């Protein structure tokens, strides 16, 4: 028969010594393995190679055997992958197991007993695509070496279409390597679609946001509206309409906001002035115009004609044609500089577009009226009123105040 004192000692030993040897959980880190590298972040994407768990403990040496730890998932149990010391009485137990199809709870076991219940969050395709956002989506049109954002094309010729956007995800962009990102340039008139695949680099996939660009693989001439549609996997992220404005309508909306003069001085520096320059002070002189289109969001190329005129009419020997990309924003257009020696008889320049005169830049100052010897009024000769003359009038009125 067991002595009474021995029975009490056995109870004390079971409750104190054995319970005291049980390790204490200090923390859990969830991560995943992908292409041989381990990333300690969650949720775990479904594209990962394996789930990685790092579980921190405090406990005596006898509780640090790898065989004593296991992770129980619904339907299966995985032994610990490794145990490594963490300093003093701390140590870490790691687990590695295949990625489950969805988030789940797992029981952490020590010697077959449940120490804690852990949540393993898994990012599936539907959840990833729901959190994916596309902002600042812009369609740009390229004309030669100039690229401008547009919601409408003002002329039926161009050199390229581009789509630019900022892509964001709360959980990182790595799953896009599996789902794919693409842009469809769709010609509504012909029904033709021109797909472009957007490839992200390793640095972009490792971040939660990236600036992405797609280029239309073909250069068809648009005759009707276009649609630019962003796709990720089977989800449509954004769609933009690109309207086509007839050339005549676009050109009728082009307007001159300001008239200036461009001057090339002896040092080779080009600068602009609102007042007509003194010809002897410049090596070369030309008109300068501040232009803008009248169609909101439209961009197009216009071919302008610059014609010099004298008192007898236009000088066919001094004229020039130049193209410029016009948007609904302001742009400075200084198409040509003429030698001063060739402007002896020239009194100004005309800017023409589509056969109509848009603006006149006069080189001659406003003529003044004279009082004759008899006190009579001699009116000034006729001249073409221009923006420069208007600026001069405003300047003189300010000086009178």
Automatic annotation (TrEMBL):
This one is known as: Uncharacterized protein
The opening ranks of the lineage are:
Bacteria, Pseudomonadati, Planctomycetota, Planctomycetia, Gemmatales
Give the organism the record lists: Gemmata algarum
